[in-house]
Design goal:
By secondary structure, this protein is mainly alpha-helical. The chain is built from 14 helices and no strands. It has one domain.
């Protein structure tokens, strides 16, 4: 049975929500024993090589024209190099819960903001309402535990790192969409992963304490399994799916995965680890799902505010 285009997009979105709903814990496990720059740079580099090998085996175009190369490098550094190293160092000083709050709340809002600023989308009451409902749900779900206790100076810096990394990722995502007039989503994912990963890996080996010793991969099984999970579903498959959705739906609509992924993480914790949900948790999850549903449906109303990639100039006219 061949799925319709809409069904394929929805399947990709659900896959993205599931995978990226389970990556915070894997990142936390990995950077507990491995320098963050090396941990991230190595997997993004390998992910890019895997995607390029797949494209070559399928006989797909590999070349990027010089006209697009400079913008592609900027996108890769924003989405991978800066986002990963800043976020992962920030994650060393705050809990995974607080990091999830910041990332989940900020991602859809910043994607919409950058999309409007660069002329790809327009604000609408539906979008603003969806963002407000989703963010309210995030804080109802994670807020009490995330901010419990006193934040010291390092925790504040860690939260700032996650925030800045998220903003870098959102800006890179919006800048990437016009490039997909010429580049396929898998080619975008491959080149972004490879360029951003190599830049981060090189900087890690040159400047990051402990990186050269850790390159031997004597990390211990927990970190190795976390790296493999982040590599295959997290970097190879989910990144390609994300670029497809950004091209077809627009950045802010694709970014509503951030309202659903935390719900999946909480439900999995309940099923696999016997964690318990309070009434406030259930209410927060319902609000987050409602925010995502409001942003995603009805499709025609949402897409009326989203320009197609072919209608977006590489550089916005001034």
């Amino acid at each position: 049975m061949i799925l319709s285009r809409t069904a394929q997009q929805r399947a990709l979105f659900l896959f993205l929500c599931f995978v990226w709903g389970t990556t915070w814990l894997a990142m936390k496990v990995g950077i507990a024993t491995v320098p963050p720059g090396l941990f991230a740079g190595s997997r993004w580099t390998v992910a890019g090589l895997i995607l390029l090998a797949v494209r070559k085996a399928q006989g797909e175009p590999m070349r990027v024209t010089p006209r697009l190369a400079a913008r592609l490098v900027v996108v890769a550094i924003l989405m991978v190099t800066l986002n990963q190293v800043i976020q992962l160092y920030g994650l060393k000083y705050i809990t995974a819960g607080l990091a999830a709050v910041i990332s989940s709340a900020l991602t859809p809002i910043s994607l919409l903001g950058f999309s409007v600023a660069l002329g790809q989308e327009r604000f609408s009451p539906r979008q603003l309402t969806a963002m407000a409902v989703g963010v309210a749900g995030i804080f109802m779900l994670f807020g009490p535990d995330a901010v419990a206790g006193t934040l010291d100076g390092w925790a504040i810096l860690g939260a700032a790192g996650v925030t800045i990394g998220c903003l870098c990722y959102s800006a890179g995502t919006v800048m990437a969409r016009p490039l997909m007039r010429s580049l396929a989503p898998t080619q975008m994912a491959a080149m972004t992963n490879l360029i951003g990963g190599l830049t981060l890996l090189s900087a890690s080996l040159l400047f990051e304490p402990g990186a050269r010793a850790a390159i031997q991969f004597h990390w211990g099984w927990p970190a190795v399994f976390a790296w493999l999970y982040l590599l295959l579903p997290g970097s190879v498959l989910a990144t390609a799916a994300y670029f497809v959705l950004v091209r077809d739906w627009g950045a802010s609509r694709a970014g509503t995965y951030a309202f659903i992924s935390p719900v999946i993480a909480v439900v999995l914790g309940m099923q696999l680890f016997g964690e318990h949900a309070r009434w406030g948790d259930l209410g927060g999850m319902m609000l987050m799902l409602a925010g995502a549903a409001l942003a995603l449906k009805p499709r025609a109303a949402v897409l009326a505010n989203v320009a197609r990639p072919e209608a977006i100039p590489l550089v916005r006219a001034r």
